[in-house]
């Protein structure tokens, strides 16, 4: 368990090789029920390079009309599949937050995909942390402060790593600069999957 910055904790190799393979199998089942879709930027409609799906009771989506959480897949109109148990267990183990996660956003990065610096502000509950799990190729992740244009630090996220963002890091700017293609053999087609577990609504 490594303290990266105030509010940021990194567990390199939190999931071992067998747990990673089992989780990939779970995610194949999730994607069979809720296919990856290509989100688009608000207003411009420019497609993201990252493809996404979700599991849990709520999923994050983005299109010309904006960013939001919703209970139904934007293409199929079906509910998101339930969260695999291993994800709920990881949240209970690491999040130090006394309510269940509602959303797990599944991001798929091909070798050339990126995610620009942004804040995650679409949740109602900023008191809950965000838990990230990485699978497949290593990513170069960057995190700054709560103001755009401040100093940033870079961190490599490898397959099996867990990263928790809470407290003052919850509203930090962050993004993915690049994927190190060929750095993992976990995904037969290559690329990277990142899972983010979140509480969206204020707990009752
Ligand atoms: C810091 N995902 O889905 S995970 C995202 O690797 C997102 O796919 C990246 O940024 C990815 O919104 C980064 C690490 C992460 C996730 C959420 C955060 C860092 C965060 C929320 C607040 C602060
Ligand atoms: Fe984010």
From TrEMBL:
Keyword line: Dioxygenase, Iron, Metal-binding, Oxidoreductase
Gene Ontology MF term list: dioxygenase activity
Fe2OG dioxygenase domain sequence ranges: 100-201
InterPro entries: Alkb (IPR004574), AlkB-like (IPR027450), AlkB-like_sf (IPR037151), Oxoglu/Fe-dep_dioxygenase_dom (IPR005123)
Cofactor(s) needed: Fe(2+)
Gene3D superfamilies: Alpha-ketoglutarate-dependent dioxygenase AlkB-like
Keyword Kinase applies: no
One Pfam family recorded for the sequence: 2OG-FeII_Oxy_2
Superkingdom, natural source: Bacteria
Listed name of the protein: Alpha-ketoglutarate-dependent dioxygenase AlkB family protein
Originating organism: Bosea massiliensis
């Amino acid at each position: 368990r490594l303290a990266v910055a105030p509010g940021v904790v990194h567990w390199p190799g939190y999931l071992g090789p067998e747990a990673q393979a089992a989780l990939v199998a779970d995610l194949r089942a999730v994607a069979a029920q809720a296919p990856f879709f290509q989100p688009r930027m608000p207003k411009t409609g420019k497609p993201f390079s990252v493809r996404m799906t979700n599991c849990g009771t709520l999923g994050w989506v983005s299109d010309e009309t904006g960013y939001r959480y919703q209970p139904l897949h934007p293409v199929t109109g079906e509910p998101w599949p339930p969260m695999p148990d291993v994800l709920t267990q990881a949240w209970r183990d690491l999040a130090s937050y006394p309510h269940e996660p509602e959303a797990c956003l599944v991001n798929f990065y091909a070798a050339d995909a990126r995610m620009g610096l942004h804040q995650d502000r679409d949740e109602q509950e900023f008191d809950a942390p965000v838990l990230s799990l990485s699978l497949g190729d290593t990513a170069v992740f960057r995190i700054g402060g709560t103001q755009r244009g401040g100093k940033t630090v870079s961190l490599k996220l490898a397959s099996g790593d867990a990263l928790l963002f809470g407290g003052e890091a919850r509203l930090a700017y962050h993004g993915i600069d690049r994927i190190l293609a060929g750095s993992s053999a976990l995904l037969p087609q290559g690329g990277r999957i990142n899972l983010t577990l979140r509480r969206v609504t204020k707990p009752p």
